[in-house]
Amino acid sequence: MATHVKPTGRDEIVDAVLDAAERLFADHGPAHVSMRGIAAEAGVTYSLLNRHLGSREALLERVLVRIEDRWDRRDVPDREIVATILGDRRDPGIHLRLLAWALLTGEGDVHTRHVSALRRLGDGTDDPEQAAADLAQVFGWRFFGGFLTETLGLDTVAADRVHRQIRDRLVER
Hints:
This protein has helices at 10-28, 35-42, 46-53, 56-73, 78-86, 94-105, 116-119, 128-152, 156-172. By secondary structure, it is an all-alpha fold. It folds into 2 domains: 1-54, Orthogonal Bundle (Arc Repressor Mutant, subunit A), CATH 1.10.10.60; 76-172, no CATH class. α1 crosses α3, α4 (56-73) packs antiparallel against α6 (94-105) and α5 packs across α9 (156-172). The N and C termini lie far apart (42 Å).
């Protein structure tokens, strides 16, 4: 739903567009959201969106960076980062959803910056091997959890327990 007060000035426009993009990407997935839809949701014209943020890839990059900057700007507890990256069991969360979509489609300039938060979740060391293992577990569960749940005959309670075990293991290390 479009905002009622139209943003004015570069900073307000950029914030409104990023807010709208994050909401729409989370609700519908990035493949089903148009730049014009984001502009309408933000209460700006498509030309303003394009002028201030550029291409779809640039917008995707800005949304990912914005999410990650929230973790860097303040002392965010590891549990909150894990909750954001892992999402709840039924929804992978906006960060992981956008990151996976960008990797699979080749859209956006996705690189190791976007997974740096997982490195922080270990014992304080910058261990790329552990970060790789953590990412493999998170990605594996997020994108194949439904298949594993069905194949292994897990009920909802058991699948929720697996999700919590992954989250807790990442935080407790």
